[in-house]
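Backbone-to-sequence.
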């Protein structure tokens, strides 16, 4: 933050340091100045009050700047959080949509296969119906009777 990119916050720290250094330098100079004790004490008191007010003012400015930056960071964090929320919702909706498409496709294929299975079952039932079985049994009985008559005729003819 001290490189000046934050709108002068680093400059404020420099000025505060300069003022504090100046106050210390002034105090040392006053202590060695040739004045009477009561004048020196009054001068130190006056300068202390001036520098104290300046430092308080700069501290207030720095506090306001910090609050402003905190507000900016908070707003940016809220924007990022909202953006993440929106993106998450979009991805969630997309995944739900794709899952529904896959589900619908699978249901359609299952329905098609079920219909084909029913058709094959019906065809199988028609091929193996009771009437056709009865016809086959009757034809077998008739063939057996015919063969029996044929054998009797052959035995009678031979003997």
């Amino acid at each position: 933050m001290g490189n000046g990119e934050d709108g002068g916050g680093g400059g404020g720290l420099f000025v505060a340091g300069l003022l504090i250094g100046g106050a210390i330098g002034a105090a040392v100079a006053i202590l060695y100045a040739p004045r009477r004790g009561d004048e020196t004490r009054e001068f130190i008191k006056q300068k202390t009050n001036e520098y104290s007010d300046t430092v308080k003012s700069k501290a207030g400015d720095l506090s306001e700047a910090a609050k402003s930056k905190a507000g900016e960071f908070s707003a940016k964090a809220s924007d990022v959080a909202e953006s993440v929320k929106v993106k998450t919702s979009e991805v969630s909706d997309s995944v739900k949509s794709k899952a529904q498409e896959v589900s619908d496709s699978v249901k359609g294929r299952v329905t098609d296969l079920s219909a084909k299975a029913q058709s094959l079952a019906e065809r199988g039932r028609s091929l193996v119906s009771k009437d056709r079985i009865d016809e086959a049994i009757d034809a077998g009985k008739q063939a057996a009777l015919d063969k029996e008559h044929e054998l009797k005729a052959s035995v009678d003819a031979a003997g």
